[in-house]
Design brief:
The complex is a heterodimer.
Chain A: E1 21-32, E2 35-46, E3 50-55, H1 61-69, E4 74-81, E5 84-85, H2 93-96, E6 99-102, H3 114-119, H4 131-137, H5 139-143, H6 154-166, E7 172-176, H7 184-199, E8 203-207, H8 211-217, E9 220-225, E10 228-234, H9 242-249
Parallel strand pairs in A: 3-8, 3-9, 6-7, 7-8
Antiparallel strand pairs in A: 1-2, 1-4, 4-5, 9-10
Chain B: E1 3-4, E2 7-8, H1 9-40, H2 47-65, H3 69-90, H4 100-122, E3 138-140, E4 145-147, H5 148-170, H6 172-182, H7 184-189, H8 194-216, H9 226-241, H10 246-266, H11 274-285
The chains are: A alpha/beta, B mainly alpha.
Transmembrane segments (chain B): 12-35, 42-62, 68-87, 99-118, 148-168, 197-218, 230-254, 266-285
Keywords (chain B): Amino-acid transport, Cell membrane, Membrane, Transmembrane, Transmembrane helix, Transport
Subcellular location (chain B): Cell membrane
Chain lengths: 251, 295
């Protein structure tokens, strides 16, 4: 049994469902300047899955997403997506092979209208939701399309951040704290939208502090602590682990 | 005779128009500087040299190859923009991660080298560049006799500024540029080749300077120092308008040109410093510039 607090967190070998991974992260280390933030992260996400990264503040969840994409000072280890080595790509490479990103704090551009924000990311190879489909999924965006992006409410900004990636037709999206600072009714709407996307076969890796929300949408969970993955389990195992999760997440 | 504050209306209107002509150059040059600074965070001290290069390319095309003004308006900006691509790829791009001072020092040094080479080759004296045949002559406006070419400069600069503004505010390229000005990394993570966007933006700014240089060739002499004489004023214009504000750079360029013209009417000795006085006041009262975002 892993002891927390007094010892360095150590990575665990976990049982995972078999099958080919769409995203595979192996022994990923990352640094911001001199500080070593990730200490060998391992995780796999299969096609069509929604996988959630849990963990306390500072556990390395956001950095894991950023390191997958290459937005860190330095990284080491393996990241492969759809059979391609992401570590050999320039920063604009992953999006072009179908890996979308919805950043923490949404990343809505203040100098662009809602419509310009929506149309900004270049389309990938094929597919992608049409603007009509996006407006059907998030009707607020249609009414507000000529407003400056940052005049939207927090919930609308989150919808816009997700919508602009869906328009590009990604195979998978990395979603960083989609419910941060949002009212419960908005969180429910985001959850409903994510379930709808899952039904369409979209693969999602989501970082989340809100465990109730995560429980609602995820097929599998990883728990991070001190820059490594310390636990992994499926949605059906959540019930039996609640005590341990409370301890790990401080919820 | 009609007078305004004791000044004949004719003299007043005449100086306003002359101010507008100078303002045309201030606007075009500060626009290029603002576009470059907004995205690259580089204060392009080579801007004056690029303006001078535009004028010299036009002069060279005419003297050596017999290619006239109208083609020069197209060719000179392309030549200078191509040169800017080389400069940005080979040198400037290596300095992006560093303190902005390095970019400033590099472009300043580059301007000195380019101007030095041209002084060595052509001397400090100016080369005349003939006004194109279609625009020779003058028109009596009643309050002044306006050389047709100077009127053309005002109209052309307005059209150029409007075109650049539309490019930035209304096109996809412009949306990339505005978004990358806010968060370059995120735009690149979305799949946009941001390094190439930076190169194109630097080339656009340099090409604009060269275009202004071609327009200036028949008005001023084509000389190696024509850019360094002008660029100091243009920097003051950019500071007043607010670094990185496109519309602000354009409006401030024309406005300060006119203000300079008016000063020539009311108190001529102050006309060469009035822009710098305005700059000092703006820096004290509103350091981000009249149109710049605070913070």
């Amino acid at each position: 049994m892993l002891e927390l607090g007094t010892h360095e967190p150590v990575p665990v070998a976990v049982d995972e469902p078999a099958g080919p991974a769409l995203l595979e992260v192996k022994g990923l280390h990352a640094w911001y300047g001199e500080s070593h933030v990730l200490h060998g992260v391992d995780l796999r996400v299969r096609e069509g899955e929604t996988v959630c990264l849990l963990g306390r503040n500072g556990a390395g969840k956001t950095t894991t997403l950023r390191a997958i994409l290459g937005i860190v000072g330095r990284r080491q280890g393996g990241v492969s997506f759809d059979g391609r080595d992401l570590t050999r790509m320039p920063l604009h490479g992953p999006a072009r092979v179908g890996l979308g990103y919805v950043p923490e704090h949404r990343g809505i551009f203040a100098g662009l209208t809602v419509a310009e924000n929506l149309m900004l990311p270049p389309k990938g190879a094929e597919g992608g939701m049409s603007v009509d489909e996006i407006h059907a999924l998030f009707p607020n965006l249609k009414e507000r399309r000529t407003s400056p992006g940052t005049k939207l409410s927090g919930g609308e900004q989150q919808m816009l951040a997700i919508a602009r990636i869906l328009r590009t037709g990604p195979k998978m999206i990395l979603l960083d704290e989609p419910t941060e600072g949002l009212a419960p009714v908005i969180v429910q709407r985001i959850a409903a939208a994510l379930r709808q996307l899952k039904a369409r076969g979209l693969t999602v890796l989501v970082v989340e502090q809100n465990f109730r929300f995560a429980r609602n949408i995820a097929d599998r969970f990883y728990v991070m602590e001190g820059g490594v993955v310390v636990d992994a389990f499926g949605a059906q195992e959540v019930e039996g682990r609640l005590d341990r999760l409370h301890e790990l997440l401080g919820v | 005779m009609t007078t305004v504050f004791g000044v004949p209306l004719q003299a007043l209107l005449g100086q306003v128009l002359l101010g507008l002509i100078n303002g045309s150059f201030y606007a075009m040059l500060s626009l290029g500087l603002a576009v470059i600074f907004g995205l690259l965070r580089v204060i392009n001290f080579a801007h004056g040299a690029q303006y001078m290069l535009g004028a010299f390319v036009a002069w060279f095309l005419l003297e050596q190859l017999g290619i006239g003004y109208w083609w020069a308006l197209l060719i000179a900006p392309l030549v200078v923009a191509a040169l800017a691509v080389v400069i940005e790829r080979a040198a400037l791009s290596k300095l992006y991660g560093l303190d902005p001072l390095y970019g400033l020092l590099f472009t300043f040094g580059l301007a000195l080298v380019i101007e030095g080479l041209f002084r060595w080759q052509f001397g400090a004296a100016g080369q005349p560049y003939a006004t194109p045949d279609e625009l020779v002559g003058a028109k009596n406006l009643g309050f002044m006799v306006l050389p047709i070419y100077r009127g053309f400069v005002v109209v052309a600069s307005l059209a150029i500024c409007l075109a650049v503004w539309l490019l930035i505010e209304r096109t996809k390229f412009g949306a990339y540029l505005r978004a990358a000005t806010e968060d370059r990394t995120l735009v690149q993570v979305f799949g946009v080749n941001v390094p190439r966007l930076l190169t194109l933006t630097y080339a656009l700014g340099a090409g604009l300077a060269a275009l202004a240089g071609v327009l200036a060739a028949p008005v001023y002499q084509v000389s190696p120092l024509m850019g360094s004489n002008l660029i100091i004023i243009v920097f003051a214009v950019v500071v007043v308008g607010g670094m990185g504000s496109i519309g602000g750079a354009i409006l401030t360029g024309y406005a300060l040109g006119v203000l300079e013209g008016l000063t020539k009417v009311f108190y001529p000795p102050a006309s060469s410093i009035v822009i710098f006085v305005v700059m000092a006041v703006v820096l004290l009262v509103r350091p981000a510039g009249l149109f710049g975002r605070e913070g």
